[in-house]
Amino acid sequence: MMILLLSSKKKKVKKRVRKMELRELGRTGLKLSCVGFGASPLGNVFGSVSEEQANASVRLAFQSGINFFDTSPYYGGTLSEKVLGKALKALNVPRSEYIVATKCGRYGDGFDFSAERVTRSIEESLERLQLDYVDILQCHDIEFGSLDQIVNETIPALQKLKEAGKTRFIGITGLPLGIFTYVLDRVPPGTLDVILSYCHHSINDSTLEDIVPYLKSKGVGIISASPLAMGLLTEAGPPEWHPASSDLKAACRASATYCQENGKNISKLALQYSLLNKEITSVLVGMKSVEQVEENVAATRELAASGIDKEALSEVGAILKPVKNQSWPSGIQQS
Predict the structure, then answer these.
(1) What letter does residue 205 receive in the DSSP assignment?
(2) Coil, strand, or helix at residue 36?
(3) Is 283 left (phi over 0), alpha (psi -120 to 50) or beta?
């Protein structure tokens, strides 16, 4: 009888959710984990991911303290949203325990920032995600549309979706930093809650930091994505289609080689660097496997416990100095 009691007690033991640093997102009241789960790889964007693999990755991320999950209907032609929705549902935890962001305006067949399309888009996304609402809805890569349409048509449509309870907060995303100042200077204060920038807060390009005071003055939260600069800051190197110049690719390759030769990891260093500025709420990292989640969580915890490797950061910084803050074109020419 006693043995039965002991075994039944064991079954009740729950896996403890380990803590990760939470940071406030602008004036939203949301507290996001400093590392966010970028779900584009769940759309088979970087190779096939099984449902079991996706569920295990999301589960481990959540158990490790990651509470922020970002997707888009563009990723994998809507597959990322479907897979993430299933994985979040499989967690079997209250909806309030995780934060979900998706996007609108960019799709597998192109861009459409019309009020009609983005209004329909969120309904489709909610169905795929199996949710009643998202926490953040963002116009996706707005430099590929007319910024005046974004200001005058798209954002007002998003405000209506916010009022209708389809999303709690709204924002914009894109590569050129000038799109954020252009739009924020033309909408009433408090209209937008968040911006998502990518490839501008990494070891090779820290230009996002130049507009942080401006963004804070506008009351918007700041999310940064792609701390590895879309593969530039990895041992494997970027995909063939990467738009960076040959000089930038060569410098990043030399940085990765230096790290390898000295027992360091360029990707870990890059992620840790991107976490140093606490005014940037969350850094989104694409993940598709338990191993990737483990590596990113370990790097984050190591940074919190013992700081960044200053010698490696200094050496890599010196290698990258000739190409520092070099970017690449994105979007259409704005009139």
Answers:
(1) B
(2) strand
(3) beta
Per-domain boundaries in the chain:
22-239+267-309
- Our answer to whether residue 75 is catalytic in this structure is yes
- Maximum Cα interatomic distance, the chain, rounded to a whole number of Å: 80
Give the closest residue to 245 by CA, choosing from 172, 168, 322: 322
pLDDT in tens, 252-265: 999 999 999 999 99
Between the CA of residue 219 and those of 169, 198, 209, 214, what are the distances in Å? 13, 19, 15, 9
Q: One-letter amino acid identity for 27?
A: R
Query: How far is the C-alpha of 43 from the C-alpha of 288, rounded, in Å?
Result: 9
Q: Return the H-helix or E-strand segment holding 168.
A: strand 167-174
Torsional sign, CA 290, 134, 21, 191: positive
> One of 75, 98, 107, 198 is an active-site residue; which one?
75
Task: State pTM to two decimals.
Answer: 0.93
Q: Tens digits of per-residue pLDDT, 170-219?
A: 999 999 999 999 999 999 999 999 999 999 999 999 999 999 999 999 99
Helices (DSSP H) in 51-146: which residue ranges? 51-63, 79-91, 115-129
Structure tokens at 261: 């030769």
Residue 289 buriedness (CB in 10 A; 0-12 / 13-18 / 19+): middle
Helix (H) or strand (E) holding 223: strand 221-225
Q: Which CATH number fits domain 22-239+267-309: 1.25.40.10, 1.10.510.10, 3.30.470.20, 3.20.20.100?
A: 3.20.20.100
